Amino acid sequence: MKPKTFRLFIKPGCPWCTDAVEWLDGHDYTYETLDVSGDQNARREMLALTGQSKAPSAEIDGHVLADFGADELEIFLKKHGYAV
Fold it and tell me: Mind listing the pLDDT tens digit for each residue in 28-84?
């Protein structure tokens, strides 16, 4: 099962964000990207969801994963029953 809503909060130039995007694209996930460097509303929302300003962070069908690497993302998705 793939997520219904998947929002990825990123900062351009962030190597962990690039890794997350490449991993998601390589596994055919559909997601919305929000640039927290250029969009203050996205930044405020990420802070409210995660309690921190580190990226990447994700909100996936109401589940939140903050400040992660691609390996942690894969584990998180499996834990919540999303196909990998």
Answer: 999 999 999 999 999 999 999 999 999 999 999 999 999 999 999 999 999 999 977
- 3-state DSSP assignment of residue 60: strand
| Helix or strand run (H / E) with residue 63 | strand 63-66
Q: Of how many residues is the chain composed?
A: 84
Tokens of 10: 């990123």
Does residue 84 lie within any of the structural domains?
A: no
Strand partners, 66: 57
Residue 33 lies in a domain: yes
Question: pTM of the entire structure?
Answer: 0.93
C-alpha–C-alpha distance, residues 53 and 50, integer Å: 8
Could you tell me the residue range of the domain that residue 64 belongs to? 6-79
